Amino acid sequence: MSNTIWKMNQNLPKGYSKINTEEGYLNSGEESKEPKEGNNPNNKNIPTEINMQVNNPFNGKKDNGKTNKRRKRLTIIAIIIIVGFMIYEVVSLFLDEMVYIYKKIEYDKNNMYRIKPIFGSDINEMRQFVGLPIQSHHRNNVKALLDEMMANLESEYQKMRERKQTDVIISMATYPPRYKYVPYTLYSIIQNRVAPEKIVVTVFKDHIPLLTKEIQRFIDLGIIELLPARENLKPHDKFYYVMEKYRNNPIITIDDDHLLPNFLIEDLYASYKKHPNCISARQVKTKVFKSNGELDAYLFWKDSAKKDAPPSFTIYAQGVGGVLYPPAIFNFTADDLDIMKKYITVDDSTLNYFELRQGTKVVFVPSDILGIGFWEAEREGLCMQVNNKHFENAQLNSKNDIAAYELIRPMQAKISNN
Question: Is the pTM value of this prediction over 0.90?
Answer without folding.
Answer: no
